[in-house]
Amino acid sequence: MKITKKEVVHVANLARLDLDEESIGKFAGQIDNILEYIDMLNRVETEGVAPTSHAIFLTNAFREDKVKEHLDRNKALANAPEKEDGNFVVPKVIV
Amino acid sequence: MNLYKLTIHEAHNLLKSREISSQELTKSVLDRVESVEPRVGAYITVAGETAMAQAELADKAIAEGNITHLTGIPLAIKDLICTKDLRTTCASKILENFVPPYDAFVIKKLKKAGAVIVGKANMDEFAMGSSTEHSGIKLTNNPWDLSYIPGGSSGGSAAAVAADMCLGSLGSDTGGSIRQPASHCGVVGVKPTYGRVSRFGLVAFASSLDQIGPLTKDVADCAVLLKAISGYDAGDSTSVPMDVPDYTTFLEKGLKGFKIGIPKEYHALSGLDAEVSEAVKNAVMTIEGLGAECVEVSLPHTEYAVAAYYVIAPSEASSNLARYDGVKYGLRDKDKNDLIEMYRSTRSMGFGSEVKRRIIIGTYCLSAGYYDAYYRKASQVRTLIIEDFKRAFKSCDVLLSPVAPTPAFKTGEKTEDPLKMYLSDIFTLSANLAGIPGMSVPCGFSTQGLPIGLQIMGKHFNEEKMIKVAYNFEQATDFHNKKPKL
User: Fold this and answer.
1) CB contact, 8 Å: A6 with chain B?
2) What is the pTM of this model?
């Protein structure tokens, strides 16, 4: 067993997801199966191999620190589910 | 003449000589969409009115003598590429009503070139899938047999091209999502080199793997569309400042001196369908017959590609999809008065099961105590896969392989077994891990009449060599002239 139901619930919580009983059981089985498969990576000798996070030759993309064209406030807020006075509205955080 | 059947280059010639107008062409495509959409289901949104307005503008431009290869050409766009003022859903409930306030870089380029946008094509939710069955909006059927999947995740983009519901389309490819549906629908599809096409305005799935690319009716059209969307963009920090060749100049006959590499490991992989294997072998012989020389090459880490990919892609996805929190855009559970509760409820309502599964796998692989065992290990194996390709390309110009191990499968066949679905990406996802370009070109049909694709992969920024081989193969065969009966 690579992953238990309890761990699925824990990870789902980290990712801000609620799962019902049925999905917990189903996901645990399916994800266990996938992690079991992924385990084959342990057969590969990787001692001293540098990890790749980016497959081509670019390293950094610097530009001048200058203000450029950008979305105006109303457009940036246009898709917000809730907004007020030019701001995004969220449920009360500080009680 | 049914104008919707035209290829991009055929339509361009008729528009240029003023034998047809873009409005006639666009109307013909829209009528075609209306008649076959109920069976194919390729589009999430059809933008008929704005398409006709764009066609009118294109006709004006043409009348003034301003014509590019894409002026007045009706195209479909995968629904995760942002289109200003045109709904972009990613086939997800969480973005069902999202209307982008800006155009993706590629859309800006297409609009500047005078192209007409017919609508937004269906896909697996957030591009996670190989069958388009994970769309949160609708099902797409394979135009060649409606009880089969069109492939995925760019299933709508591929089906729309195959069913003549557009002249060409854009898709995106993170692990095969352009090439595999192109193969299953019998059209041409290119995943460009990572960095060739700007990802600005492409909704992110796995940022180190995602690339936008064209799907078209033939290779010449692919060369046109690829040229139009390629090039440096300061808006994407991974965009590469390199000149883009005019790919259409590589549409010339003759493969003398070309070295074609055949990876020996690919034939040993389990699950390769006999008809696919046969079609690819025949394609290799055809290409040899055209003057190319075949050499055997080795990609020893091939069997680890799926495992490495299904750590790296979900890890990046879990991070990218954290932005869907019900605050800035998209769905929100307005009944929740606690911030964290609102996040949880919104995300649980908005994401489909495949997206949740991948977020959980990714979060698990990145979580404390597991990072080294999974993400770091997979990233090291990724290095070894890249080195395999570098070695192989020392002795050849392009690599040939199947695109998918089988022709399209039946709707519902793999939805309950995610691992089985993932394994259908075995031939395609190495190219994403290595950042190299790959394409699919039709190379046969199964006895059931389903299309089979040949994959051609090239070195970084060597799309032109791939295109040249594909063009020569296409011109020597007849597969691209066959059309599904709808």
Assistant:
1) no
2) 0.97
